[in-house]
Structures are given as structure tokens and as C-alpha cells.
Fold TIGR03790 family protein.
Amino acid sequence: MSASLKVLTQLFLYLLISLPARPSFADAQPRIQLPRTGLAPGDLAVIINDADPLSRQIGDYYQKVRHIPAANVIHVDFPSGRDMLSKDEFQQLKAEVDRATPPHVQAYAVAWTVPYRVNCMSLTSALALGFDESYCSSECGPTKPSPYFNSSSLSPARDYQLRPAMMLAGINFDQVKALIDRGVAADQSFPKGHAYLVITPDKARSVRASYFERTTKELAGVFPIEIVEAEAITDRHDVLFYFTGLAQVPDLHTLEFLPGALADHLTSSGGQLTGSNQMSSLRWLEAGATASYGTVVEPCNHMQKFPFPGIAMFHYALGASAIEAYWKSVAWPGEGVFIGEPLAQPFAPKLRELRPGQFELQIFSPRERRLGVERSLSAAGPFRPLPRQISLRRGANLVRFKLTETEGYLRLRW
């Protein structure tokens, strides 16, 4: 056993660990908590259009399987079947949603596929940021930036007065149910998949390639990353990330996406979920991805209007949910729609009891860092730091330990 592992084992001899949002065993929860890494079900509100039977079916299923509190379910009622809402229609909808949103809610899951657009903005961005034409292009120009971009915030409503939104999108209930089930299956799964950064012959749509080498260096040892120069990848069975630029991406049917996978293609109208002459972002979800993104109006090829792959991957590795990782990766999100299962959290820390008194902690990190340990004799505090810290390496960390001491209350902090 290495010296560092011995130190960790000694430290954990008197730690009783659990996750507040996903406790592995009930008695551990009051004793010690790991740092929160992403949104929990209680942080999310589900918006259901009562005039749309499919929306009701999706929303009811999502609330059930994700254990969303009943108080977090928001019902609206407007004619369905249209791709776009007018500004006035949206303002009325937004007012209803705002009135019904509990103050503690940090993000939205939207239980429908259409409408996905509000004039020049996407529906998800208009819900998050409010309808504001400064978030739209003028003659292919820049737009107002998102304050949430690459943020460390775990509470965007509190910190930035915005609630990111993601659409539980699909053509029918079976598709959306499969999407939701993949998101649930992704939680704490620590998938050993690859990231594929594809440079296609379409140079205008491959502008993100200028950052691919940097992404590979910054995330070395965290994810296996392949930079591929080709029209597309084929026959891969370990796809966790797939970022490319093309109007139509071929061979998706030959790929196997792991639960929690993020995938998108930089093109003008991928976010036009229905009726586009380019490939809809829905095709990614149908192929097995858990979340995707596309623009609903002509964005021109500003990289800021699309996800930065390295930033999305970095926040995912920190344990963020899919909605957080994707939203934080887009600097100018006003014209882009976010679709997928919001709460998928494949790299949230996980604790298992292997046998009575013996435990295994899995924790992932995009960089070398330390966890501080604080202790208190009372659950209410005050907590005081202990001299020892837990050292984490890049990527997966696995610690096994025996438990012999349960006195006091402890918490771990980044």
C-alpha cells in the first residue's frame, strides 16, 4: 500500500461519509457530508403544458423517477404544436412561471419539444435570461454574454438571478422516457468513455478545432480524448463526448453512447428541433446521447454561441449535472436551445458499503486538488478544520477504508 493511501486510510478510520442528495446508507447522513457538486432534484422545477397530453405524460414520469417535489411542478396552459412563441405570448408564460416558481428552485426542466423558440431567442435561454433582444444577433454580430459562463456557482438563481433551462425533448413518449432513463442510469456511474473531438472537412463549422489541442492538454489524465480528422466517427462503442461541426452528421446509428453522454454539432439551425433542413439536435438524443445543443436562428460561426468542449467536460468532471455543464460551456447562449435530461450526474461522488464497516469512496476530479476536512461535536457547528487533507489526482480516485469511529460530525470541502 502506498504512503498516500495509508494516510487516506488512517483518516477515514473515523469518518462516516454520505452524500446529502444521494445517501448510500441512512445512518451516515447526519455525521459527515461531501461537498455538493451539482444540482439535486429539489433544486429543479418541472414545467408542464396542460394543453399538451405528451407534456403531461413526460412531466409526470420525470417527476416520479427523479423524485421532484410536488411543490416544484409548474403547470401552464397554452396551445401546443407551434415551433415559436411570440414575444407577448412568452411574456405571459414567463410571468406565470415566475409566480409559480418556489424561491429555492435553481433550474427548469421543460416537459415538451415545441415550442422551442421565442422570436430570435431559444425557449430555454428566454426562460433563463428573460426575453431580451440583446441576446440575439444583429447582422451576425456578438450577443450579450451569460454571467453563468464557466462559473463555479452551484446556485445560479441566487448568484446570477437566472435559472438555466433544458428541454426533455423527443418526438414521442418512448423516446423521452428512454432519454430520462439514460440520465438516471448515468448518475454516479463513472463511465469509462472517450471524448471525440472531430475536425470535419467543413472548415466554417469546425472553428472549435482551434481549441482541441488545448482541451487535450488541459484534460490529460482526466478523459481519454481523440482528435479525429474525418467527416465523422463510426463503429465506436464508448462515446461519452462527441463534438463536431457539420450540417448533417452521418453514421450515428453505428455508435454506442454511454449514459450521460454529451454530443452536439456546430451548424446554423441544429436547434430548430422540427422542420429544419439541417440535422436537428434531436438526432443526437435519438442515437443515445443524454444531452445536446443547437441554435434556433442563424448564429454565424461564432464559437461563443456554441459549447466549448473543454469547459463542458471540465464541469462534468467536477460532478456537475448535465444542465450545469452544458450551460456553463456557452458564453453567448441567447440563440441556443439546451435539450436532454438535466440532472444526469455521472461523476458525482459515490460511497458504497462493501461489507459491514468497510467502505469504498469514488470521487472524480479534473485536476489535482485537496479536500479539506472539518469537524464539529454538533451538527449545527461550529466546524473547525483538521490538519489533514485528502489529496486527489486527476481523473478517478478510489479509496477503500474501514470504519471504527463515528463520534462527531465532519464535512469535506473543496
Q: What stands out?
A: The chain has two domains: 3-35+349-413, 41-340. Confidence is low (pLDDT under 50) at residues 1-30.
